[in-house]
């Protein structure tokens, strides 16, 4: 038994269509009750004894008669317009192309049938008897007459033998194609090849015009063709054509179409269309790009186990082009790349690292895998290529020790490849990562200084400053480059042109190094502008721990020192670091006092270390070196580690850092004797 709630107007149509089956086959009893504008239609069906009906008839009798009558009614429904439900709740007619059919999946009968079902049962509640209760299903789709499969929010799929409903149930259904069906099938447009489309069209608007005449599946071909055409244009023409594309009357329709197709589109087509959209400069925060982006990801994750090595290698560039930082995809692709690193072209390795840099994606296993592979095959690579790799590693703060040692030895033995650009880059990488080798460092620095001296006649002021500053970070002071840099005209050039703020900062570094590290240049005095003041944020938890451990008045916060050095906390102790002395602003104690030890507590963020290590980077190493010259004992407190510690553990940690081992052991002995 079926209960169907219909409006009064639909009931009149419904009554005129439902007719009894041939005599003796089956009998229908109908009952209609009207309440206001709603009619309740009760359909009672009496079947022949179950055993006397053949298997085929059992399957067909349930739906055959009713669906046959529905098909007769579908011929009365106009097929040239469709109605679309807008968010405001109003329906507005929209032209569609009834001869369009994606990949020939549906016949014309499919379109007519599903359209009529929606037309008839929109906003209806259908009750089906099932055991002791009723199952309800609400249908709230708008009136849709003749539309393609992708325009329908819910799909009915037909073939010649089966009917598949939305809930996945398959029912036998036989349909004999009519002459109209055959004609429709013959007139379906053939899918357009992207290459052929780009050859036939001369502008982006031409592609959209072809789409407006006969849309075909997949719509990604239109975007790919437009990007192919745009690549042949000059920058000015490309800019003009893109504006025409955005203003074209069917461009929004194409965008809506490809969003509907996204879930059933082939993976390659999705990627090609997304790539074309990015290249055509469609804003990435639009619904169009974000929808395709999610579908490409929600699909990539399902097919991760089927990714080839090449797929994984190129996935980095794809995500970087979309500026989409999908950690899951990047992690899985990194595993595949790392496990298949041997034989990977150098160009691909560079592309992967550039994409990781753009996405701010740090994967230590991936970086180590690439560095170890290049180190193992070091002899087959040109030094310029390896240098490019090291520059990218420095951007991450990653220090590949073995590879940097090999490069240092090779550059020392074969300095012929060095020019000004490569020289400045090498010095920057090694000083930034604070990399030294116990045997080769001095010889390496001498070779670099000699190469820089030979280039002084044509080097720019900024390159000279960068190179000398890198030498200073590594505590090496070549005489000729420094003397040329200190000339008044070069200093004036650096303070008045280029990146002045950056130049001033590096000149202050140079001045501090000359005063504290280079005895022969201690009398040098540079008149430099003051550096901009930085916001002071002393670490709150460390301050709380010091207050608990030492008491207020035994340490000072946010201390500025000569040469623009800043320390978070200063503690004064005796020479053996066994006792903390009271701190007073009036009582200024200098480092010359033999019985006083000044302690500098530095709260260090993770970025001050090399990636995945506690090896200090160049500026932190230089600061520690200079603080020791000024008489400080330096204590490093890692911010991220301190945040993880409980208060009791944090007090114990700082206590072991502040007091000397001898003082701690003596305190333990005294404590045991008292007990």
TrEMBL record:
Residues 599-656 form the RAP domain. One of its GO terms (cellular component) is ribonucleoprotein granule. It is found in: Mitochondrion. GO terms for biological process: mitochondrial RNA processing; regulation of mitochondrial mRNA stability. SMART domains: RAP (SM00952). GO terms for molecular function: kinase activity; RNA binding. Its main location: mitochondrion. Keywords: Kinase, Mitochondrion, Signal, Transferase. InterPro entries: FAST_kinase (IPR050870), FAST_Leu-rich (IPR010622), RAP (IPR013584). It comes from the Eukaryota. Residues 1-20 form the signal peptide. This is FAST kinase domain-containing protein 2, mitochondrial isoform X3. It comes from Physeter macrocephalus (Sperm whale). The lineage of its organism: Eukaryota, Metazoa, Chordata, Craniata, Vertebrata.
């Amino acid at each position: 038994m079926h209960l169907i709630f219909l409006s009064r107007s639909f009931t009149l149509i419904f009554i005129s269509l439902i007719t009894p089956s041939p005599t003796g086959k089956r009998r229908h009893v109908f009952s209609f009750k009207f309440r206001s504008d709603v009619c309740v239609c009760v359909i009672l069906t009496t079947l022949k004894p179950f055993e006397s009906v053949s298997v085929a008839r059992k399957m067909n009798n349930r739906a055959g008669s009713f669906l046959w009558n529905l098909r007769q009614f579908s011929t009365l429904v106009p097929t040239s317009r469709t109605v679309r439900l807008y968010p405001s709740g109003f329906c507005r007619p929209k032209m569609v192309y009834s001869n369009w059919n994606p990949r020939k999946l549906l016949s014309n009968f499919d379109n007519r049938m599903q359209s009529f079902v929606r037309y008839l049962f929109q906003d209806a509640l259908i009750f089906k008897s099932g055991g002791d209760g009723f199952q309800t299903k609400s249908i709230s789709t708008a009136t849709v007459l003749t539309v393609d499969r992708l325009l329908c929010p819910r799909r009915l799929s037909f073939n010649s033998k089966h009917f598949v409903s939305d809930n996945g149930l398959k029912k036998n259904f036989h349909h004999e194609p009519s002459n109209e069906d055959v004609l429709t099938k013959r007139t379906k447009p053939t899918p357009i090849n992207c290459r052929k489309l780009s050859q036939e069209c001369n502008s982006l608007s031409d592609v959209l015009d072809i789409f407006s005449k006969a849309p075909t599946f997949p719509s990604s071909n239109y975007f790919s063709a437009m990007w192919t055409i745009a690549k042949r244009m000059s920058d000015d023409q490309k800019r003009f054509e893109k504006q025409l594309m955005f203003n074209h009357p069917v461009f929004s329709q194409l965008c809506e179409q490809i969003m509907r197709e996204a879930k059933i589109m082939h993976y390659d087509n999705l990627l090609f269309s997304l790539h074309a959209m990015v290249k055509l400069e469609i804003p990435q925060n639009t619904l169009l790009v974000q929808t395709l982006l999610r579908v490409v990801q929600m699909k990539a994750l399902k097919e991760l186990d089927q990714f080839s090595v090449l797929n994984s290698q190129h996935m980095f560039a794809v995500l970087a082009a979309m500026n989409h930082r999908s950690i899951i995809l990047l992690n899985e692709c990194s595993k595949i790349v790392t496990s298949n690193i041997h034989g990977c072209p150098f160009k691909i390795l560079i592309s992967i690292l550039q994409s990781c840099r753009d996405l701010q994606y740090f994967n230590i296993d991936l970086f180590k895998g690439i560095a170890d592979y290049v180190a193992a095959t070091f002899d087959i690579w040109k030094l310029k290529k390896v240098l490019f790799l090291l520059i990218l590693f420095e951007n991450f703060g990653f220090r590949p020790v073995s590879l940097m040692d090999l490069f240092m030895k090779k550059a020392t033995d074969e300095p012929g490849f060095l020019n000004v650009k490569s020289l400045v880059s090498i010095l920057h990488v090694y000083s930034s990562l604070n990399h030294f080798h116990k045997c080769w460092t001095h010889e390496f620095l001498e070779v670099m200084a000699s190469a820089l001296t030979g280039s002084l006649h044509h080097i720019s002021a900024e390159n000279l400053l960068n190179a000398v500053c890198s030498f200073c970070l590594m505590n090496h002071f070549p005489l000729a480059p420094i003397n040329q840099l200190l000339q008044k005209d070069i200093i004036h050039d650096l303070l008045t042109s280029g990146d002045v703020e950056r130049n001033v900062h590096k000149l202050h570094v140079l001045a501090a190094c000359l005063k504290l590290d280079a005895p022969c240049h201690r009398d040098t005095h540079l008149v430099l502008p003051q550096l901009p003041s930085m916001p002071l944020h002393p670490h709150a938890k460390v301050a709380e721990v010091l207050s608990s451990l030492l008491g207020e008045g035994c340490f000072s916060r946010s201390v500025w020192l000569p040469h623009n050095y800043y320390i978070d906390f200063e503690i004064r102790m005796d020479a053996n670091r066994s006792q903390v002395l009271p701190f007073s602003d009036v009582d200024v104690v200098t480092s010359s006092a033999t019985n006083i030890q000044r302690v500098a507590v530095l709260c260090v963020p993770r970025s001050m270390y090399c990636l995945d290590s506690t090896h200090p980077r160049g500026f932190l190493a230089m600061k520690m070196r200079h603080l020791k010259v000024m008489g400080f004992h330096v204590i490093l407190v890692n911010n991220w580690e301190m945040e993880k510690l409980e208060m009791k553990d944090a007090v114990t940690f700082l206590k072991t850092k502040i007091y000397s081992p001898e003082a701690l052991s003596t305190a333990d002995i005294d404590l045991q004797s008292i007990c």
